[in-house]
Amino acid sequence: MRPAVTWKAAFLSRPVSNNHSRALVTRNLQDGESGNILFMILIAIVLIGVLTAAIQYSSRPEGSNIDKETLVIRATEVQRMASELERAILFILQNGKSESDIRFAHPEAPADYGDLSADSDPSDQIFDRTGGGAEYRAPPPDVNDGSPWEFYGGTHVPGVGSDQADLVAVLPNVTPQFCDKINELNGQSGTPADTGTAPAAGPNAGDCVYQGTVGRFEDGQKFYTTPNTMDETTFEQDPETSTTRTALQACVVCDIGPARHFYHVLLAR
Predict the structure, then answer these.
(1) Closest Cα to residue 263, out of 199, 178, 192, 172?
(2) What is the mean pLDDT of the chain?
(3) Whose CA is closest to 158, among 232, 208, 228?
(4) pLDDT in tens, 37-92
């Protein structure tokens, strides 16, 4: 049996009338192959464009939109962090320290909170194993503008303790997405308000749960005598008692800014 030949070989082996015709046939075949190569190049360009878009999407800046599943994970992570800080406070108090002894120094924390390495007795330090034993953590990505946790003794939280200022942890400048989700998890149907525009000054804590650098809980500034009070009517109400439900954590929007801030009560007073 004679071996099979390809159509291309057979075509080229056919007699042609002259060299010009053979050259024309060869050129047509080469043009077809060039067209296939061009098509493959175009496909590669499209794939590179898709890959570039995916990389840009995955590296979007903090505070941009994230999917619902990731948002829930980040919100519960923030809640776990806050609960760990609250437990650390209890450990310190159980060890005989007072509420005014509590300190939040750490090498990665703002310097206003003190120098942990210079403390001869760190048993009152939240982030030391001999004290509260909590781990200092940065906030998860995409929940706020990257600002670190802050700690204040300047706000009386609705439905909590007496009318004195409570010790609270604050995650500043959270995104609207995160604010809505954390409030949903806490049974708040809306976004509670912290109204007023006065900044913290002297013994007055001002009008926002987030007090910036001025109100940080440290050696020179502990609990304010005139606390910030939130608008209790904007919090979830108990229909049976017509009073504000206890809100140990929530996200509030401050008139100052305006901006949204997450808080968690570490110690009710």
Answers:
(1) 172
(2) 86
(3) 232
(4) 776 777 777 667 656 545 544 444 444 568 999 999 999 999 999 999 999 999 99
Which residue, 143, 205, 122, 140, is CA-closest to 168? Answer: 205
63 backbone dihedrals φ, ψ, rounded to 5°: 95, -10
What phi and psi values does residue 265 have, to the nearest 5 degrees?
-75, 120
Give all strands (DSSP E) within the chain, no chain letters: 150-156, 166-171, 193-194, 223-229, 237-238, 243-244, 249-254, 259-267
The β-bridge relationship of strands 223-229 and 150-156 is: parallel
Return the number of other C-beta atoms located less than 10 Å from residue 209's C-beta.
Answer: 28
In this structure, what token pair is assigned to residue 14? 């056919």
Where do the structural domains in the chain lie, given as residue ranges? 18-58, 68-267
Condensed to tens digits (0 to 9), the pLDDT of residues 22-44 reads 555 455 555 556 667 776 777 77
Q: How far apart are the first and last CA of the chain?
A: 101
Residue 84, Cα to own-chain centre: how many angstroms? 17
Decide: 210 and 200 in contact? Cβ < 8 Å.
no
Q: For the whole model, what pTM was predicted? A: 0.76
Query: Which pLDDT score, from 0 to 100, does residue 50 have?
Result: 54
In Å, how far are 7, 9, 10, 29, 129 from 4, measured between CA atoms?
A: 9, 10, 10, 20, 82
Length of the chain: 269
Q: Residue 178 corresponds to which tokens in the numbers above?
A: 């995160």
Give CA angle at 242 (205, 265), nearest 5°: 35
Residue with tokens 């904007």: 234
Residue of 178, 173, 168 whose CA lies nearest to 256: 173
Q: Is the pLDDT of residue 129 over 70?
A: yes
